Amino acid sequence: MPIKLGLRGKLLILSSLFLLLPWFAYQFVNEMERFLQAGQQQTLLGTTSGIAVALHERAALFNSEIDDNTDIENGHDLYVYNLDKPIILDGRQDDWQQIASFQNTYPTTPSLDINNPVKFEQLLGKQNGYLYAFFKVTNANPFIRSTQNQALAQGDHLTIALTSPQGELLRYIISVTGDGWFNAYRYPQHSLYVNKANREKSIQGIWKTTNDGYQIELRLPLTLLGNKLGFQLNTRSSNSSNQINQHIATSNLLDVERLGSVLVPSPAIKNILTAMSHTTSRLWVVDRFQRVIANTGDIHQANGTWPTTLSNSQSNQSESYNSLVSFIQEHLISPIYTLFLDQPYPDFIDKKNNPTRLNDALIVKALSGTPSTQWRSSADNKASILSAAQPIFVDGKVVGAVLAEETNHGLLSLRNQTLQRLFNVLFAILIIAGIVLFWFISKVVKRITALRNQSESMLDTNGRLTGHFVASSEQDEIGDLSRSMQEMVQRLAQYHHYVEQLASRLSHELRTPVAVVRSSLENLSSLTTNDKQQQKYIERSQQGIHRLHKILTNMSEASRIEQSLSDLDKQPIDLTKLVNGCIQGYQMIYPSSTLISPEASPYIQIDADPDFIVQLLDKLVHNAVEFSNSTDPIIFTLTKHQQDATLSIDNKGPLLVEGTQQDLFQSMVSIRPTAQQHDTHLGLGLYIAKMIADYHNADLKIANNSDLTGVTVTITFPII
Prior knowledge:
By secondary structure, the protein is of the alpha+beta class. The protein has helices at 7-15, 20-55, 267-275, 312-317, 319-340, 361-367, 409-457, 477-527, 532-565, 575-589, 610-627, 684-695, and strands spanning 78-79, 81-82, 104-106, 119-127, 130-138, 157-163, 169-175, 180-186, 198-210, 213-221, 229-235, 246-249, 262-263, 282-287, 292-296, 372-377, 384-394, 397-407, 571-574, 595-596, 605-608, 634-640, 644-652, 699-704, 710-718.
């Protein structure tokens, strides 16, 4: 079964094409996002270029004394971290939690002494012009020299080797006789053994014994430190030994060439990066060995956008409006957009949190002298991070690189805000346009429906015009159509009036010629009484005149009844009594037919003209008698319902041809057996009956009965 779509449904389907507008808007914003990403890359590359320009040709900021072929090794070459919180020299590790994850353990391979595996863990930090160091020593049997023993190397001790800013190798020893405060002692120049040394008051710290060894916490001024640094823990190899013969070192402390390098983040470079912190980017500066010498910024705050704020005057003027809009946006609209749009995750995990070396391919490319940018994902794939690197030159050589990083959160937030605003406007326009279009099409449908209803009400079931067509005053196509239909109805009304008056006019005009012909035939018949052949033709002519007179009489009757119905005067009558009285008269008129009255008929009162109801019954009974079998009775049934009463007349006889039931009520339509074709039948009987029934608001129907043995006529009257 095909689906029927009205104008509203078709309009709804066509209006769905407007939903392509949000899709086009989404594609447009995505395209703009790609342009903004390219712009962010160029902006970030410009940031690194500006910082690199500030660092160009400043050799003092970079360690240029280390050979380019030196292989930087973690643990051997030491890195000093920036400390954000102050360090209290108390021999405890609580202050070092900020960089606890960057500790180095020595020796790097497990100890062979399974009974007493000696090792130490080291942390290095920088704050306020001092280098701080923390050593956690694991030694089940520490050997501490006595107070009477002046030989500093006769107990567990820590050796520090470093180069001065002038490149001189300096060595210090830390040896204690018990827990507490200490100062370092400086090795005599060119001596490998310490028996008596000078105290170095600038190097100080705390020695504290623990359950599994001891902890050493110290500090020294950065003014003593050059670019080389190493530590060595000296203990005995076994409990039975009184010799300090086990040495665990970060590097070779005796050879300045083999001493490990140290990288102390440059405060000058740090100050330059801090001055650039308004970029909201995370900034790194690395040397040519990819070691971080300065960094600033937080990648979680580096979203790549400038902060925007409203002025107080703007905020005050629209405070109430903004509050309402913000409430709707936050609680109703934004949760819906959150389901479909990628949201920035501020709690993403970055694997490059605070490393000592940057091994990215981007850094390698920058150290080769080529600026570049790249996008990468965070460790948990919750954020995209943009990186841009720029080389730093001194005397035409690359001595380091600047790396700037930002997330896509700023662009993502900007894109989401743009999409939300754009979608809000589009959806508002679509809703308003949809309402206006739906209202307009509803108005059009209403006018078309009214036009259809008015056109349908103009004709009754017999195709007769029953009223006046009222045209629309609207000056549009539908108004033009209604005015055209009004003109058409007026012409049809004139034609119907002509057709309706045609029967009476023909009857009036033909009666005089028919009377003349009839009188002439009668006179002619009296003159030719002896001529049988002429008499035969005269009789045939008289039969034709008789049939023509009958036709004119029937046509006049139909016209007369139609005119009389216009002046109909209804009154309450007893339908049961009227029907029973008519049946008694029909039994005398049609003695050869059997008519059965309704049994136990109830009292039924209707509003009607009794004379016309009798004429209605006369036409129906006449038809029933003509089409019934002489041996079968004609049965009348009268039934009363709540709002109406039904009279049925059932006769046994020929069945109706399927599809001709409604045609029988038309004028000049007669469907009869071949044996009755010689009679004069204009088909006006049922036409008159239908006319009378319609004027009494009764429903007249004719159909084959249920057992297909004849025809049943039913009349339904509204009761009082």
